[in-house]
Every structure is written in C-alpha cells, then in structure tokens.
Amino acid sequence: QVQLVESGGGLVQAGGSLRLSCAASGRTFSSYSMGWFRQAPGMEREFVASISGLDGIRRYADSVKGRFTISRDKSKNTVYLQMTSLKPEDTAVYYCTAGSSSLKPDDYWGQGTQVTVSS
After folding, report:
1. Residue 11, CA atoms < 13 Å, CB-side half-sphere
2. Could you say which DSSP state residue 33 is in?
3. CA distance 51 to 93
4. Along the 119 residues of the chain, how does pLDDT read in single tens digits?
5. CA dihedral defined by 54, 55, 58, 59, rounded to 10 degrees?
6. Quick one: CA dihedral 38, 72, 21, 97, positive or negative?
7. Which of 4, 8, 87, 96 has its CA 20 to 30 A from that of 73?
C-alpha cells in the first residue's frame, strides 16, 4: 500500500518560513515525480510545485515562484517544500503527491498538513 505522510505544517507570521516534509513508503518512488498541492478554505485544490523523478526538473505555480523550493532525497524517499516569505494567502492545507506525470503528479495523495500564515 502506498503511503505519503506530510509533516512540518503549523502557524507562522507573515514573512516567516516553514519546511514541509513528505515521507513516502510502500514502493520505490525514485522514478516517480513528486509534488505539492494546496487547498485554501472555499477554494479549489491547486498545484504548488513538482519535481520530476527522471531529470529533477522543478516546476512552480507563479504565485510561489522565488519563495518556495521543492527538493527530494531519493535515498530517504522524502520530498521537501521550503517555504519562505510566507503570505496570509499561502494559508491552506498542503498535500504531498506522487505520480508518473511530472506536470501533475497526482496519482497518490497524502492526508495533508495545515499551514496558517497570520498577518
């Protein structure tokens, strides 16, 4: 069974930083692309970032470019999302994902972790 477990969410003031982690288990994810999506209250779920399993190419939503960085440690089957210069509009539940598509790796989902940015 595939499992993605996120950690690192919490409450932070605007301008602050957080690092989310996602540990994958159940199968080898080294060739999978992994990503992060988020869903704010009353909003649809949206893509945040992804990292290709084949060539390591990273993609970001325009709203987070220059502030968020996605990375992965294949030896640990773990993906990270370093978030800096956080804004209140970044408040959302953040979901870790994995999949075969590098553009939208959404075959597998974690349970989500809450990130709240206060103004």
Report:
1. 2
2. E
3. 19
4. 779 999 999 999 999 999 999 999 887 777 889 999 999 999 999 999 999 988 999 999 999 999 999 999 988 999 999 999 999 999 999 999 999 998 899 999 999 999 999 99
5. -70
6. positive
7. 87
